[in-house]
Design a protein that fits this description.
Layout lengths: L59 E3 L10 H19 L20 H11 L5 E9 L4 E9 L8 E9 L4 E9 L2 E10 L4 E10 H14 L15 E2 L2 E2 L1 H13 L4 H8 L19 H17 L5 H4 L3 E9 L2 E8 L1 H15 L4 H13 L4 H18 L7 E7 L5 E18 L4 E18 L8 H14 L4
Antiparallel strand pairs: 1-14, 2-3, 2-14, 3-4, 4-5, 5-6, 6-7, 8-9, 10-11, 11-12, 12-13, 13-14
Helix pairs in contact: 8-10
Length: about 475
């Protein structure tokens, strides 16, 4: 029989796949059909199951040893791209795509949390930089490097990443370039185990894909085109166009007639009754509420976290060292304790903000409660939920190096997880699901701030080659 998830050959009547761990609910008598793409030799980024506190009993299952299934080398490139987007995007774009939480003038706070957020947010002020990223998921180390160089708009900007990785089954070299609205991709993988090589080019019209996404969203009932979204406007004169992001955010707020209905439908309000609560009258006040929430969090980050006793409630450290104009902060954050401190701070202070307080009082009245009773109920519920999570022994470790102007130079984060994997015992010819502690780490180095000079002739040559050889294996 064969696994319906990954196609691996299995012994008859087994309960779990030895390769991917998928439960075998039905007996597979034939090999799953394969299309042209899956017949090509393929490489894959190792999959990490992030289940820090999950308890699972070890199971012993008799299975045949399975030869690993080959997957496209392009998958590994896409995985690296995703890592780059997540690591860089959450820092920079996270403060851009949403209306800025910390916009405007800020106090010159020196606590490690404020410095970290400042450095990530300040990436939006850069016209370009080179980057080098290392990712270790416990199974091996993978790297990506390249540069970002912003032009007069998005389509005249340049973004490049290169990868060079090797695991037990394949070595892969890849390159992708975004230029003039197109993405050119090259992938070359070698499989010594099968004595095979796999090479491909891709040439993707990003503008066309984005138009299709907007059309799909409109068909689904979210007419994004009505917002006047043109992704090319997200970059302006060598900078991320924060004004455009804010314009879209404000327009969404002003036209959010179904916003709170969607929240109610999602079950986010739990067991609260909403029939007697008319949220529509607060739609016009969303910008004011948002501004108050920004002030609330700004005070948390730039005032309260300056107090050592307050910061020490969820941060270990920091160790601070200087070298020239650069400063390095090393510290650890306990996520459960952070949630406890932050939730208590919000509940204790939210009533000080008039627009937020008016909304909460109206909501409390619909629940036949006073505002104090509502906040006490929410506080108790959150405290109970967090206590059930334990004291959060798995801390997240950070190391941050910034310039004098708080531009990001180096950033690393690591944390421990529990990974469940299949272990084969050759003596008993049995597989068992075992618990393996793993440290996941990501390290980023940025350089050449605002001083990136790409070779456009070389870029154009690469893009032309990608276009001419696309899909020719």
């Amino acid at each position: 029989m064969y696994c319906p998830e990954c196609g691996a050959k299995l012994a008859d009547n087994v309960k779990f796949c030895a390769k991917c761990g998928a439960e075998q609910t039905q007996t597979q008598t034939k090999a799953p059909a394969q299309d042209t793409q899956t017949q090509q030799p393929q490489a894959q980024m190792p999959q990490v199951q992030m289940q820090p506190q999950m308890q699972m009993q070890t199971q012993t299952i008799t299975l045949e040893p399975v030869t690993p299934v080959k997957k496209p080398a392009l998958v590994k490139i896409i995985s690296i791209v995703a890592a780059v987007v997540v690591v860089l995007g959450l820092g920079a774009a996270g403060f851009i795509f949403l209306p800025r939480l910390l916009g405007g003038s800020k106090p010159n706070a020196n606590n490690c949390i404020a410095v970290t957020l400042d450095a990530l947010e300040n990436m939006a002020e850069l016209s370009g930089f080179t980057y080098d990223i290392k990712i270790n998921d416990g199974n091996g180390e993978y790297g990506a490097n390249g540069y970002l160089s912003l032009g007069k708009d998005l389509y005249s900007s340049l973004f490049e990443f290169k990868i060079d990785s090797e695991d037990d089954y394949a070595s892969t070299k890849g390159r992708a370039v975004f230029y003039n609205g197109f993405l050119g991709v090259y992938d070359h993988s070698v499989y010594p185990q099968w004595d095979e090589e796999y090479e491909s080019y891709q040439y993707i019209d990003v503008k066309e894909i984005l138009e299709e996404i907007l059309d799909m969203a409109s068909e689904a009932g979210a007419n994004l085109k009505e917002l006047g979204i043109d992704i090319n406007n997200f970059v302006k004169d060598g900078r991320f166009n924060v004004d455009e992001f804010n314009r879209i955010g404000e327009k969404v707020s002003k036209n959010a007639s179904d916003y709170f209905g969607a929240i109610e439908d999602s079950g986010a309000l739990g067991d609260f009754e909403t029939e007697d609560f008319d949220i529509s009258k607060y739609l016009d006040k969303l910008p004011a509420i948002q501004k108050e929430l920004g002030k609330l969090f700004e005070n948390f980050l730039y005032v309260e976290c300056e107090k050592e006793t307050f910061l020490g409630g969820f941060v270990s450290g920091p160790e601070i060292s200087k070298a020239g104009d650069s400063t390095t902060y090393k510290y650890s954050v306990n996520p459960v304790k952070l949630a406890q401190v932050l939730s208590k701070y919000i509940i204790d202070n939210i009533a000080r903000y008039p627009e937020c307080s008016a909304l909460l009082e109206d909501f409390a009245d619909s629940q036949k409660m006073t505002l104090d009773e509502l906040l006490s109920f929410v506080s108790y519920s959150l405290r109970t939920a967090l206590e059930e999570m334990g004291d959060g022994e798995n801390e997240i470790r950070f190391s941050l190096t910034v310039s004098k102007k708080r531009l990001l130079e180096k950033f690393s984060v690591s944390f421990d997880i529990i990974n469940y994997d299949w272990d084969y015992n050759s003596q008993t010819d049995e597989y068992s699901l075992v618990e393996k502690p793993v440290t996941v780490s990501v390290a980023i180095k940025l350089s050449d701030h605002n001083n990136v000079k790409p070779d456009k002739n070389e870029i154009e040559s690469f893009m032309k080659k990608a276009e001419q050889n696309a899909d020719n294996y």
